[in-house]
From TrEMBL:
UniProt name for this protein: Glutamate decarboxylase
Biased segments, Basic and acidic residues type: 1-18
InterPro entries to which the protein is assigned, alphabetical: Glutamate_decarboxylase (IPR010107), PyrdxlP-dep_de-COase (IPR002129), PyrdxlP-dep_Trfase (IPR015424), PyrdxlP-dep_Trfase_major (IPR015421)
Molecular function GO terms recorded: aromatic-L-amino-acid decarboxylase activity; glutamate decarboxylase activity; pyridoxal phosphate binding
Group of enzyme by EC: lyase
Superkingdom of the source species: Bacteria
Enzyme Commission number(s): 4.1.1.15
Alphabetical list of CDD domains matching this protein: DOPA_deC_like
NCBIfam families: Glu-decarb-GAD (TIGR01788)
A single Gene Ontology CC term: cytosol
Region (Disordered): 1-28
Amino acid sequence: MSQDRKTEFQNNVNKDEEIMPDSQKSLSRHVQMELPHEFSVNPLFAREGESDVPRFQMSDKGMLPETAYQIVHDEISLDGNARLNLATFVSTWMEPAAEHLYTKSFDKNMIDKDEYPQTAEIEERCVRILANLWHSPTPLTTMGVSTTGSSEACMLGGLALKRRWQKARKEEGKPVDRPNIVFSSAVQVVWEKFANYWEVEPRYVKLSPEHPQLDAQGVLAAVDENTIGVVSILGETYTGLYEPVAAIAKALDDLQERSGLDIPMHVDAASGGFIAPFLQPELVWDFQLPRVKSINVSGHKYGLVYPGLGWIIWREAKDLPEDLIFRVSYLGGNMPTFALNFSRPGAQVLLQYYNYLRLGKSGYYDVQKASQKVALFLSKEIQKMEPFELLSDGSDIPVFAWRLKDGYTLNWNLYDLSRQLRVFGWQVPAYPLPPDMEEVTIMRVVVRNGFSMDLAHLFLMNLKQAVAFLDSLDGPMPHDSKCDNGFHH
């Protein structure tokens, strides 16, 4: 890069930093100064003018496809190994036939139903399959849609709750300016976003050692005539536990009988929606409860599909307000659309249908049971280790969490253990519990399809090695509190 270009680039960096928050300036400066201003190019692919290319601005000319591939491929080789990522809930493995289908369909746009009518038909079938799986009273006619993930699905579910509440209040001649929504303080961040973006007061039922989950008592203390809905989680992000959906629904039924307040529920089944129907079929949590009006799930979690795919289904068509559905004619037909995104990939929807065909109910049971078996094995073995005590064991979704026993050591904590496990390639998050319990740090393992029992034994061996190393320290590990975070979703 010429000196003039370097000077121009640095001037641009300085201008950008002038408008940055102070908290970002030092990080930005560090990143810019640590990295060279050019990529070096592997000579194997070099041609004239390709000895280096700018890193932070677009070059004047293009390059060979092999050169561009080499630059990107070299950088992502520094990412973690997806098979050793025990932090994320998102699928990191699909079988070769599914990957082949993916490569044949990644050009399909899900919104363009006129151009890709059969993909749209398959999406519709997937909606019907989920509605049936979750016991909708009208599975062939109720409303549902695919999304880019559970976050978008939750936003749509929340919007429907708010709109239904507003409509009912207006019909009664009551004000609509103070809506609120109730959920536990362990809720995933998307619900905080929903409340913020759509101007709904979030009412958190705070957790405590005596009340470690959202329960009927906490819900009844939080709701009132302005409550648009109660959100219950089927598989908490922190521990993997199911919240007692049926008990909460029963408490709200009793409340309506006493007071006339009719408060609907939405179940955030991002993880549990593809687990409970197969591993806990006797559990009542879904549309068998008339108070449950909508359910979301992540197809790219235990739906076993690559990211990003989510689903939301309403109990009956009337539970989705008609005025939230838009119709567009500029894609070649009069198409209904209800989503926050417009154009989005259609391939993941086809992969979801592939899984339905490939696995069936028995196959989903086998896959999820295998993951649960690994989770139960690991949690049992970790419970035996002197430093730890379990918070959950993987009996709900195949996710379990543990904490460091009080008084075990002052030389290391779970953040140190998380970093030490990265030496072996394992990504295991350590993070604090929700507000009012944030003094407790926990670790969590998510067992997904592809994490075999053999890998579980290898992980357990490395965990014991990491603990042995930390226990051998003569003094406390140095800590930077800014680095003591490892939460992953």
